[in-house]
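Posting for a labmate who doesn't have an account.
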Amino acid sequence: MIEFGPLILTLKLSLVVTVLLLFIGTPLAWWLSCTRSKFKPFIEALTALPLVLPPTVLGFYLLILFNPTSLIGSFWINFTGESLSFSFFGIVLASVIYSLPFMVQPLQSAFENVGFEIREAAASLRASPLDVFIKIVAPLSKRGFLTASILTFAHTLGEFGIILMVGGNIPGRTKVMSIAIYEHVETLDYNQAHILSGMLLVFSFCVLFLIYTFNRRHPLNVG
């Protein structure tokens, strides 16, 4: 029998993180695609850090940052009356940080592929930077938005280490599917572990298959 609690919580977490990162990652990716600042390599490295940093390391420092005795943790308790660590909002913030490169990097590549010539031509016609982005760059970057959103959603769906460090294993609050699988393996309940693992495996494959199929059928023709 499938546990619907962890499944629903996982889908909720993935959706919230994807939407938040669309708002956070889009302006960051746009700035990285346009800027010639000497700080660009530093920001790019900082953004990509979750790709190489073990999730337990990132989770450990976030757990300290979210601690009730820290500045952020104490502010959150005073504001909401609840602890930021071991809460749903806590794992949302942790997932936003951990999945940031999966949103920013595809968007940055998509924006850069539009080409400076098109942007300069629009600017020469007195189009503002915002108009250039909304009316020209964004429509030409639909493939990048789709890829970034799907990858972010799928990556968040399978997060484990950082969720366990920051959120623990609280049913209805932080017990997502990956945590539920780990719990079933620990208790030797391999049937449930097989069911949940198989669901994530099939979903992950379908996501990658759809991305590759879409990119093959809709090649990027701008530059």
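Reply:
Got it, the structure tokens are right above this. The two ends are 51 Å apart (CA to CA).
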